[in-house]
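Handout, section 3.2

Students often ask what a structure token actually looks like in practice. Rather than define it abstractly, here is a full record for Putative ABC transport system ATP-binding protein. The first block is the sequence as you would receive it.
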Amino acid sequence: MDTMAVQVRRLARVYGDHQTGVRALDGVDLDFPRGSFTAVMGPSGSGKSTLLSCVAGLDRPTEGEVVIDGENVTFWDEDARTRLRRERIGFVFQSFHLMPYLTAAQNVALPLRLAGRKADPRLARTLLDHVGLAERAGHLPGELSGGQQQRVAIARAFATEPAVVLADEPTGALDSATAKDILRLLRTAVTELRQTIVMVTHDPVAASYADSVVFLVDGRVAGHMAHPTVDAVAGQLAHLDELVAAVAR
């Protein structure tokens, strides 16, 4: 059985003319094993969000391939990529993106409905219980704190048992104490639910919850770090010039 949830090979994304345009990604090769938690870091404009967009099928690569669950999805048409996002990819955003007129339980069940599957209310309750919000199942987003809304968003991301959860700055809008609660939830999802998470972040504390860190610079992979700590990540980010020099060689 393939042990990789996501693989990208020679991935490039050029905006504008192929020769003179901006290369947001430039020949990226990465493997994301099943049941792993990877943080993606780098300076602004390094290609972090473009990487997530290409994996999610929101943006089509200029070159290279994206393989999810062993299937090459790079050249799928828009309908197929929409189904991919609905059924096999979970999303957690900085700004939660909950439907304001749906309850917490209904928000969690929404991906199932969009995928044309029966939304079992017991599953929504189970997922909300996993994130510590079973008693808030009937509350609207406006009745929840920011941290609680993000917990609902995480439960929603797990609803379809996706191949991978893509998290884009999931703690960026939260205070430090609430952010740590959210990161512990993501960590638990990896260890207990065997979810695969790829998280873009600028925060060394957030990265320290991951199994590994990938550093991007100028659209290229500039380094890897296993078993990251806050100090080690912060130290690497403080010497980005060395990463840039390494990419240039």
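Discussion prompt for tutorial groups: The chain has a mean pLDDT of 91. How would you have guessed this from the sequence alone?
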